[in-house]
Design brief:
This protein is α/β, with parallel strands linked by helices. It has a single domain, classed as LmbE-like (Rossmann fold), CATH 3.40.50. It contains 8 helices and 7 strands. Helix 2 runs antiparallel to helix 6, helix 3 packs antiparallel against helix 6 and helix 4 packs across helix 5. The chain starts with 29 loop residues before the first helix and ends with a strand.
């Protein structure tokens, strides 16, 4: 699936707000996903992906007292190629700060949260997929439950991290689940490519949704594009609207 930037004209035809299958996805409770006492490991290709893909689930797990570990594969500094306002040098400092603020807004326990920063380069993860698998595996331990982006999400870095995380989980022998992020914004004609039989719905209450939305808005560098050099907002309005849905969907 080719990555397509979102715009208002494509909004009515996206999977997330039109697919009838969404209403029929079985609900799964948090305890079924992550057994009592198990550690949840969330692997994000770029800063912000952890909030967009499972900011609600992270809150639920934290409330239940599960140990949490986040692994940010890149620092997101190459998100605005050619930009003077958001140069790689500035973003290498700014985006980690945004991440800290976003996690604070989610209400996660910063004092006990384990957070690994990979330092890999954006937009080049597929070339280092094998190395990435071994890197991730180093931080996993028996009994973990691992979450990352779907291997067919439609963005090269998301797909590569999904494959690498799945391989790392297999190496260590732990449970692995995938979360689609950009796939929900594919055109409706692509809905047959979604593995609906694997989809499970995690319900979120009003306050959990509000904290997730508030956390997403911590990524100021991603909210405004630069039309003059052809860079659209990397967190467009359609995505910000979607994350206010009262559930998150996991492929099990």
């Amino acid at each position: 699936m080719k990555t397509v930037y979102l715009n208002e004209s494509t909004l009515p035809t996206q999977i997330w707000n039109n697919a009838a299958q969404l209403d029929n996805i079985p609900v799964i409770n948090t305890q079924s996903l992550v057994p009592e006492g198990a550690r949840a490991v969330v692997i994000a290709p770029h800063p912000g992906d952890e909030v967009v893909m499972c900011g609600g689930l992270l809150q639920l797990l934290s409330t239940l007292g599960h140990p949490l570990q986040l692994i940010s594969i890149t620092d997101g500094s190459a998100s605005h190629p050619g930009s003077q306002q958001w140069s790689e040098k500035r973003l290498s400092v700014f985006r980690p700060q945004e991440s800290v603020e976003a996690v604070r807004r989610l209400g996660l326990p910063m004092h006990s949260l384990k957070w690994i920063r990979g330092g890999f380069t954006d937009n080049a993860l597929a070339e280092r997929e094998q190395q990435l698998s071994h890197y991730i595996a180093r931080y996993l331990r028996p009994g973990d439950v691992v979450f990352s982006t779907w291997r067919e999400d439609g963005i090269a870095d998301h797909d590569a991290v999904g494959r690498a995380a799945a391989r790392a989980a297999a190496i260590v022998g732990v449970a692995y689940h995938e979360l689609p992020v950009w796939a929900w914004h594919w055109p409706m004609r692509e809905q047959g490519m979604i593995p609906w039989h694997r989809a499970r719905k995690v319900r979120l209450d009003t306050w959990t949704i509000a904290r997730k939305s508030h956390a997403t808005h911590a990524y100021a560098s991603q909210l405004d594009g630069e039309p003059a050099i052809g860079i659209p907002p990397l967190l467009p309005k359609a995505l910000l609207e979607r994350i206010r849905l009262p559930y998150e969907i996991v492929f099990v």
